[in-house]
Amino acid sequence: MEKKKVLVIGSNSFSGIDFIDLLLEKGEYQVIGISRSKEKPDFFLTYKRHQCNNYSFHQIDLNNDLDQLANLIADQRPDYVVNFAALVEVGPSWDNPEDWFTTNAVAVTKLAKLLTQFTFIKKYVHISTPEVYGSCEDKITEDAPLNPSTPYAASKAAGDLSLFTFFKNYNLPMCMVRSTNVYGRGQSLFKIVPRVALYLKMGKKIPLHGGGKAVKSYIHIRDISEGQLSIMLDGKPGEIYHLSPNGAGIAICDLIEIICNKMKVKFDDAVDIVGERLGQDKAYVIDSSKAREAFDWQPRVPLEQGVSDVIDWVNENYNEMSEQPLEYNHKL
Amino acid sequence: MEKKKVLVIGSNSFSGIDFIDLLLEKGEYQVIGISRSKEKPDFFLTYKRHQCNNYSFHQIDLNNDLDQLANLIADQRPDYVVNFAALVEVGPSWDNPEDWFTTNAVAVTKLAKLLTQFTFIKKYVHISTPEVYGSCEDKITEDAPLNPSTPYAASKAAGDLSLFTFFKNYNLPMCMVRSTNVYGRGQSLFKIVPRVALYLKMGKKIPLHGGGKAVKSYIHIRDISEGQLSIMLDGKPGEIYHLSPNGAGIAICDLIEIICNKMKVKFDDAVDIVGERLGQDKAYVIDSSKAREAFDWQPRVPLEQGVSDVIDWVNENYNEMSEQPLEYNHKL
């Protein structure tokens, strides 16, 4: 059987990396990854455990090298395109909001226009974010209105609105995914789970915005990748699908406490309480019944087990990790 | 009494021109206009009838000269900023959607960030569009969800979402206006009312998309300018206000027939039926009860009277007008 070809845009992102790992694990896919950056250090690239002849990487920047991408697509004729590329950090988006709009809305619009030329593409899967809904008390379904609180969220909402115009008018076979916060082995080190594990190991204090009362939903990256694969194969064009964990969200302080307990550090010794972030959405629980019913999808990795795996990963790669930058660096 | 200072961004736009004309007519305002283009030919600039010492023009491009604008604002310390600048055409936005997002979302985001520095600004009025709502059968109120159908509309929605993040987090004293289609003396010649009058006078056929069945609301520009002035002075920050005519909308073919009758040309001789435009929203009637109640505002210029005035304007300036381009020219 001939392998299906999948083009993964944003192959250096944590979600992109795990999605590639899942595709290669299935053995039925030929994967092409692109990113504006060089490939990350190997300890991030969980997909490196597979044989390399089913994966190729190309350094292409969506903001500047769209012609190169057009040539690659024309040449490779992928069956599916899955786009993880975005500027994703919330805090820095207040300093350079225009960069977030340029990447998350303008470049996405150019990409959408380009993709309409390639009728061999069976599905374009776009990774959006529930932050486009802003603060919500109740469980959010896919038809909730857009009400973003930060330039990051507004720029993602802008890209989403743009994509829908290409679905409506050019039948771009687009599905959109909005997932709650992910975590797992391979994640960027400034993200909460690996960061807390790393800080505890280093004996550094963790700055805790607003006391960590904000409730978030965390789901293991492999559960998300499985959901995205179902959406890629069987999602209905023009539809948005939420992916979220079972049960309610968890307060950030409680998540940190789980990690502290596993690493045998006292919570009070581990954190520094600092001020609330601008535009911090208070509650954040999304409803994923639609994807659960459509694809018989459900999360399978318990939080305790997933967190332990991240701690193992930090322990295994501690020397290389401690040489990496631990803060988010904005580059465009 | 010291005059209040108003900075009008997009002073070469039809709506900007009429708003400046209204401000100068009131006699209580010092007006600073900026546009990326040089001032238009005089027959467009209805405000030229006023003495020039209450108006100054600066050629500044929001996309490229933000520093210049920052200096101007710091120097002039306007009480109010009203922003008409946008790429507004729908059809061409499919060819270069990224340009629409760059101007209508990225530049607006940079502007919003800049304005938060100037606490002497009492109000920032942003001119949005009801096209952000997409196709709607019913009367649309200000809380309707965003559902744009074209890159133009999506780019305006993107700018609007971005502005709200600055209202929510930095208390930018922002009001947003969404008005139905305007017409009047001074309007761009490719817009329906002056264009039809000009084509009839030239004996040229009018291309009529989808037979002109699309229903739109037309309101005289002076009614809109009066509403915008009320919003500038008394609008509540963070609020959106609709401005729309009394009664239901009018089909484009019926509007053309009114002009034909006034100019004594047979409708069937005047038009060529052509295909529907991409992303053409079918119906388009917005509810303006909120502004009517808040400001005791209502439209006062009857359609027949306003249309006659445009025809007079075309007759008065026919020689100069026929030397102008009649099609929209995209430039960025």
Can you tell me about this structure?
The structure is a homodimer of 332-residue chains. Chain A is an alpha/beta fold and 332 residues long. Chain A is built from eleven helices and 13 strands. In chain A, the strands form four sheets. Chain A has a seven-stranded parallel β-sheet, sandwiched between helices. In chain A, strands 7-10 form a two-stranded parallel ribbon. In chain A, strands 8-13 form a two-stranded parallel ribbon. In chain A, β4, α3 and β5 form a beta-alpha-beta unit. In chain A, α5 (192-202) packs across α10. The model of chain A has no long low-confidence stretch (mean pLDDT 92). Chains A and B meet through α3 and α4 of A and α3 and α4 of B.
Oligomer: homodimer
Structural class of chain A: alpha/beta
How many helices of chain A? Answer: 11
Shape of chain A: globular
Beta-strand proportion of chain A? 15-25%
* Total number of strands of chain A: 13
Most extensive chain-chain interface: A-B, 32 and 32 residues
Distance between the termini of chain A: 41 Å
Radius of gyration of chain A: 19 Å
Low-confidence stretches of chain A: none
Walk across the major sheet of chain A and give the strand order.
3-2-1-4-5-6-11
Mean pLDDT of chain A comes to 92
